[in-house]
Amino acid sequence: MSQSQDNHEVELAVDDGDDPRSEIGSSIVSSRTSLRDSIIDYRIENGRSYHRYKEGKYNLPNDDQENDRLDSNHQLWLITLDDKLGVAPPCEKNATVGRVLDIGTGTGIWAIDFGDEHPEADVSTYSTANLNEPRRLMDTGLTLHRRFMGTTYPPYSQPCEETFIVKIERVLTILHRVPPNVKFEVDDIEDEWTYSRPFEYIHSRLMTSSLSDWPVFLRRCFDNLEPGGYLELKETDIIPRSDDDTLNPAHALMKWANLLLEASIKLGRPYMEIPSLKQLMIEAGFEDVTMHVYKWPTNGWPKDPRYREIGLWNYENTMMGLEGYTMAPLTRALDWMPAEVDVFLIDVRKDLKDRSIHAYWPQYAIVGRKPQKEETPAAA
């Protein structure tokens, strides 16, 4: 599934069995996990809600639709990593882990999963947005969560019909309390960190376009790790690619990606060229830095069943979040009208659905270790 280091050389074969412009054959419904109490205020902009905390620094909505997308993105990573929560050593099933920090927490689903898998760990989260109102059942404080520990069941194991997924979602939704070893915090990750004790593992996901200064962020991660501790970054490249040139600059999908990049630069939190983060981690002091590269197809065009499944999930995830990705950056930074965004996204959706466009987004997991303390020489 992955390629270690800096290449994209795994080639995806095309599934020739379907009409390239047919409807996507399977619809994947996201899991639902959220936190207990509403701890941030929010405002409405162009029909979507956004957080007020450090208003304007985070360009994605914080409503149910966006939370569904974040949980779907979590499932995509689970499929990609063979049901593992990360590639760093603390994510091994038999690992014993101490203090853990999750950055870019979203709905909290990664932290909840990690706390479940590692009851010995002390898991903290650090997020500016999306820690919002819980989806409760009968005010019990229970949260919706659909991942068995160590088990993947339909619809996660294979694509299936939408009607079946809806039924399975209702029947097999599992109730979980937030584990007692997981706690949630809302703060600005770009402010000074005030932790009194270091962490053994820091996990950060999808922070590109949310940070104005990556070197400062990485140095804070380094300073807040214990010697021998690990930092893991999971990031996506906003620019899609194709290995057979079926995606070109004339496509609306490419125009969309470049517009988001332009807007992010104007907003002061640019989408990063993700491979450059490896060198920035080394410059921050990390050692044994490795980078794993994955491909998320835009839809179910690959012939390989696993990549096809990832493509189907990614199609649903992208379609779910497309307006949310686009509306605030283009209206705030590029002075588009909301109606212009809506019209433009019609063609972007057509490209996303088009199976003759063999596009994918590169995904990266970059891991580095803080060096062990040097031993103090014994006195003569």
From TrEMBL:
Domain of life (superkingdom): Eukaryota
Residue ranges with Basic and acidic residues bias: 1-11
SUPFAM superfamilies assigned: S-adenosyl-L-methionine-dependent methyltransferases (SSF53335)
One Pfam short name: Methyltransf_23
InterPro entries linked to this entry: SAM-dependent_MTases_sf (IPR029063)
UniProt record similarity statement: Belongs to the methyltransferase superfamily. LaeA methyltransferase family.
Protein name: Methyltransferase domain-containing protein
Species lineage: Eukaryota, Fungi, Dikarya, Ascomycota, Pezizomycotina
